[in-house]
TrEMBL record, chain A:
GO terms for cellular component: cytosol. One of its GO terms (biological process) is adenosine metabolic process. This is Cytosolic 5'-nucleotidase 1B-like. Pfam families: 5-nucleotidase. It comes from Haplochromis burtoni (Burton's mouthbrooder).
From TrEMBL, chain B:
GO terms for molecular function: 5'-nucleotidase activity; magnesium ion binding; nucleotide binding. This is 5'-nucleotidase, cytosolic IAa. GO terms for biological process: adenosine metabolic process; nucleotide metabolic process. It holds the Pfam family 5-nucleotidase. GO terms for cellular component: cytosol. The lineage of its organism: Eukaryota, Metazoa, Chordata, Craniata, Vertebrata. It comes from the Eukaryota. It comes from Haplochromis burtoni (Burton's mouthbrooder).
Amino acid sequence: MVSTDQKTDVKEKEADCPVVVAVTSHAVFESGGAEDPDGLYVGGIAFPLLQALQKVNERLLKENPAESLLFDVIVITTESQQQQQSSRITESIRHHGLKVSRFCFSNEEDFIENLLNNNVHLFLTTNRNEALQGSQKGVLSVLLDEHTASCPTEQLRVLFCGDAVVQSEAGPALASKQAAQSFSAQIGKMRGRFGLFDSPISIALVTSRGGRESCGDALRTLRSLGVNADEAYCLAGVPRGPIKRLLRPHFLLSECFSSN
Amino acid sequence: MTPLRHLAVHLRPWKQNTHPKPENAVTVAVSSRVLFRTEREQKVFEQQGVEEYLRYQIEHENEPFAPGPAFPFVKALETVNARLRELYPQSEELFDIVLVTYNHAHVGIRLINTINHHNLFIERFCMTGGSSPIGYLKAWQTNLYLSADANKVREALTEGIAAATMFMPEKMTEVSESQLRVAFDGDAVLFSDESERIFKAHGLDKFFEHEKENEDRLLDHGPLKGFLEALGKLQKKFYAKGQRLDCPIRTYLVTARSAASSGIRALKTLRAWGLEIDEALFLAGAPKGPMLEKIRPHIYFDDQMFHIEGAAEMGTIAAHVPYGIAQKHNSKHNTSAGK
């Protein structure tokens, strides 16, 4: 991987800590708690995403068995009904062969606190309200949608949106921006562990409205965070839908570029 | 009328900052290797591998690339746009030039710096980091794709996108800065290769016979017909404003067919398609090089490498359309794969 500063890499290697990703049980399993013949939950929207995160960990450890910059995946329940299904959830996770380090059986009252206590770097949910609450407390929260379900399992695809509209209702934007920037830096570092081809992580940048200068600025912003994008698309007004369908990202990040 | 005119003038600067919708514009996608000269970087890529190639690119990020074979063509498209904006300030029927490259986004900043340096109006681009850009070409409703890599061009043609491979000629003769000139071969470019097949299989006499018998039967369309059509649509916008004589777009047919015989079928077909071509040159088999040297097109499309090379020898910028029966005879000409 192209590296611009060898010295910092060596120093930072000592300080690498895991990237804690919390996913709600609703995102991991089919909504409505659909069951298979054994009474276990069926895989949902975030399933391919978890498999991709796992793939990244496997490849990171292959490159360096002593690697500490790994994804640390937590499954979290966010409401009491799911909270009571703890054994079924853990069994289903085990059955599907997913590597989850911890479970957090919270409800709607205390799940945010659990996110903070567990030092969660990225919170993934299919519930807009939950994402909003997370953002308001300064946790990088990403809303997953049905597109995530059809993403590849062999490669984690992250899409940075260079000039998306900042969600003004998300509360303290500054805190969220910092969380986004540090998460992005971690992703960038992970990407740097692999070569240009056959990487289990792929990073793309899309700017939707502005021209080439806004894309250039976004590329520079990413670079300052230690993120080297693999792909870049400057749409300058072309509808984003078809491009997103072609890129198939697991999730989108836009907070790095918000104006405040 | 006057208040409206003032309004139009006031709106114009704003309009120039918004970009035309793909369905309204004539989208021309060019790769970085044909828009600019990247031979040195290509050599690094081929000899030292991709990581070294990207390191080199980043190291030289502030050095703009020199113009490549598609550069004069792109500049001419922008000249036409300027003239169109004068006459139709609100219209989105313009050329939209998009940079489409297999390069990784690491090269992005150098490419943007280069576009800035040369004052090109390119606001859309696509750096796919190695994957096929065909999906994006389609999403952008691309009318023409120019690349240095024949494989990618072939892929585009199979998907129904007009495409051609460009090469860096040893010398590039000067071309007009005020008028876009596009020259096309006939068979297997504007038209299908059906007649060429007859010629290749049965010889010249049989070819003449076949053309005479089928004079009134239209030829089937070729891969570049749509692009000629798009050019014609823009030309009509100038004619509508009384600018036929001063039209900044001029099209040429340069064919080996002869005027008295086989050429008639070509002209009848064009007429039936409702397409006008400004000049039709029937060479009756004579070499195309000298004629092209007189025309000085910004780009010349041909399906036969023999003609492409002949044109390049005389400084004409030629683009190869790898379509039809002639490709089976082009085997000794392989372009290098890569970025």
